[in-house]
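In this supplementary section we document a worked example of the pipeline. Step one takes a protein sequence of length 132 as its only input; no multiple sequence alignment statistics are reported here. Step two produces a three-dimensional model, which step three serialises into structure tokens for compact storage. The input and output of this example are shown verbatim.
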Amino acid sequence: MNKNSTIEWDILSCDCLMAGTVLGVGAGVFLLALLWALVLLLCVLLSRAAGVARFSVMFVFLGALIITSVLLLFPRASESPAPEVEVKIVDALFIGRYVLLAFLTAVFLGALFLFLIYHMLEPVYAKPLRPC
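The serialised model returned by step three reads:
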């Protein structure tokens, strides 16, 4: 078993520190936000209902409260993060990117020059006031 397969196994078992985060927060925050957005929408829809269905808003709210408390009290990840493995990033296409950037810059400047000559500096001739 080589080192790469161990790192892949750690990622698959969610033992890495920031494996599934967006903007520094995990999937649980987005799950809670989605839960409460759906509860708010359902409460608004059920508040417009007539009869006994109107009182089901309490059960929806209490159910969301129980789900939220369970998710907050029993977190999936541990409090202490695992040490990070240093990853060395190598840019193999460094020269190709700069050649492409130089080519695109030359094309842009050429197009800008041609636009300046043929469109912006096009002469506007005066029209005669009286036909001769």
